[in-house]
Amino acid sequence: MRRNGGGWPTMDLLRSEPMQLAQLIIPIESARPTISYLGDLGLFQFKDLNADKSPFQRTYAAQMKRCGEMARKLRFLREQMIKAGLSTSTRPSAGTDVDVEKLEVKLGELEAEIIEMNANNEQLQRTYAELAEYKLVLQKAGEFFHSTKSIAAIQQRELKAQSLGEGSIDSPLLLEQEMVTDPSKQVKLGFVSGLLQRDKSTAFERILFRATRGNVFLKQAVVEEPIRDPSSGEKVEKNVFVIFYSGERAKNKIVKICEAFAANRYPFADDTSKQFQMITEVSGRLSELKTTIDVGLLHQASLLQDIAHQFEHWNLLVKKEKSIYHTLNMLSIDVTKKCLVAEGWCPVSATTQIQNVLQRATLDCNSQVGAIFHVLHTEESPPTYFCTNKFTTAFQEIVDAYGVAKYQEANPGVYTIITFPFLFAVMFGDWGHGICLLMATLYFIFREKSLSNQKLGDITGMIFGGRYVILMMALFSIYTGLIYNEFFSVPFDIFGPSAYACRDLSCRDASTQGLIKVHSTYPFGVDPVWHGTRSELPFLNSLKMKMSILLGVAQMNLGIVLSYFNARFFANDLNIRYQFVPQIIFLNSLFGYLSLLIIVKWCTGSQADLYHVMIYMFLSPMEDLGENQLFVGQKFLQVMLLLLALAAVPWMLFPKPFILKKQHEERHRGQSYAILHSVDDPLEMDLHPNSHGHEEFEFSEVFVHQLIHTIEFVLGAVSNTASYLRLWALSLAHSELSSVFYDKVLLLAWGFNNTLVLIIGIIVFISATVGVLLVMETLSAFLHALRLHWVEFQNKFYEGDGYKFQPFSFTSLSEEDE
């Protein structure tokens, strides 16, 4: 970010910003505000000077532990808000700043209060569930006892009537005997009542029968609706049971079986009046508990609502505090224990801003000693920093995904802004589809302020982040679509009438005699008369294939030219003489010559076979060209270019390793000297990679590396040029798919003269266009354009072995998860 005469920073993406290694000496009393202000500025990348120490051995380990505890409490509060169905405010509240000490106390109080509320609510819910089950047992078992007694009374009356009606001599005596039987000799049955999960009822009954040898009577009643289980809190389907038994041993067995099956037992009285009294008491307690639970939940919801309004503010404050102490732990403490020493990278243009921040922190703390900013001289490679905006960031990310540029290496991101969407559009050319893409991306651009504050999904987030890339892709697609003259595969004569017409007005002989030129050449793009003719496909094939070669050779030449500017910037004359020159000669002797033949053929209208020319340029360079000759002196030029291409291969391979070996030997003999770098100039870096006299030199490794590089370039010149033919292939595929959908779906449905068929045809056409052409084809063309930039373009000059400048900044904290 260099500054012009007016003092404003200028955007320069070609070279990364000049960086410097700086040392900060900060008094302990002003250390925290200094780091905080540097975090607000976001232009200083700290180095960890305590890498050999564990986190527990560092100076501010106790403060980090406190911040971690506050972060844990905030996570607990977030979980409680999510359970309550509340969402935190996406923007931090604009209230007054809360002191961290007070916030720590407040978070502790809130956590304890909510934990107590949860415990009380859990106990109340458990009690409520038990009482609800108890009420069900009283109702169901009461109904069972009532119906059983009614049936027994009826049976007894029937038995008496039957006995009296028989009139036997012995009957009165027997009845009197039964009535005077000793009550103490009658057997009384006990019973156990409760609830059991319905899916366990069969096994429960079987175990009871086996354990008591059938000496129990089990009666079950189904509960229609699922009820909440007191122990688990989940709704389950249950049955009410009543077990009748005789004897204490049977009771003990029944109780143990109930415990084993997690059956909840509840007391029950066989007296009807007591049953009614117990139901009344349970119903009253249930209503009281319901009121208490509702009041508690309302209070808890109100408390969580108040927390939600300030949660993001508290969360950001804790994150800032944690990041400040994490950074302070990277600083080394001076032997006097009175100041901290920091080292890190910063842009040269930010020196004044950093010094102002240090002075501001000193004034805020009323410190008698100010912080010291000192520039260090180092041989270490600085980080790479490009000052981007919301438009250029996405294009720079495309380049960085391949590899971060070496410090002040030529940045392909500058050219990617134009070449990437243009190559995409060459494959996607249809101005109807381009307008659809444009409308989709304008939605994201117009709503970027609101969408930037929302949490988007993975795919939506990627589309939103690359909205300006898609905008350029859409604009270039409209441009190339106008050149191809395709609007959903339909041609239009926008720029004037067609240059061709039929020989007669009826056009009967159009398919046999062809068309004649009646107007001047169509001014822009493909003449609409080509579409739908028998010669459309051969014509467009030839056009797009040759155009792909021209674009590919032009972009590869751009990459080689950028390698020259890299070598010149780093003062590497060897790369200019023995890499750039032979590479530019080799590429243009073969494929640059092919591009020249294509242009000459277009301009002259020659019928020469370029395949024949290029093949026999290698097989029979001295053979006469005959009818394939395009211009005078072509044969001589071909021989010269072939010789230059052959000479360029050893030119790339042999000189550079031997010259490097000679330079290394001269340095060790003391015959070559280098000027010492001035310590006073912080910008002066070691730009001469061969100036280190004490490093080892392995000639075999250097020669093998150069051999690999030469073979890769020679073979890559052929394969990379062929790779650009994907522009032709995908463009043709896109055009043909669009034509198929239009002809075989939309026009076919239109021809039935049926409204329902037409509506179905339109729906199928829109679905196919959106799903295949606007989604799948867009992704396909995007990936192919990405490959052409990463492999065919960037490998000509781009090393990409740097590391990104990652300053300490608070702006990224809101995007990070805990």
From TrEMBL:
Q: Which InterPro entries match?
A: V-ATPase_116kDa_su, V-type_ATPase_116kDa_su_euka
What is this protein's function per UniProt? Answer: Essential component of the vacuolar proton pump (V-ATPase), a multimeric enzyme that catalyzes the translocation of protons across the membranes. Required for assembly and activity of the V-ATPase.
Q: In what way does this protein cross or attach to the membrane? A: Multi-pass membrane protein
* GO terms assigned for molecular function: ATPase binding; proton-transporting ATPase activity, rotational mechanism
- Family named by the database record: Belongs to the V-ATPase 116 kDa subunit family.
Query: Which biological process terms from the Gene Ontology are attached to this UniProt entry?
Result: vacuolar acidification
Indicate the segments annotated as coiled coil, or none if absent. 100-134
Key words of the record: Coiled coil, Hydrogen ion transport, Ion transport, Membrane, Transmembrane, Transmembrane helix, Transport
Q: Which residues cross the membrane?
A: 422-446, 467-484, 547-567, 579-600, 636-654, 756-776
Give the protein name, as stated in the record: V-type proton ATPase subunit a
Originating gene: LOC115738591
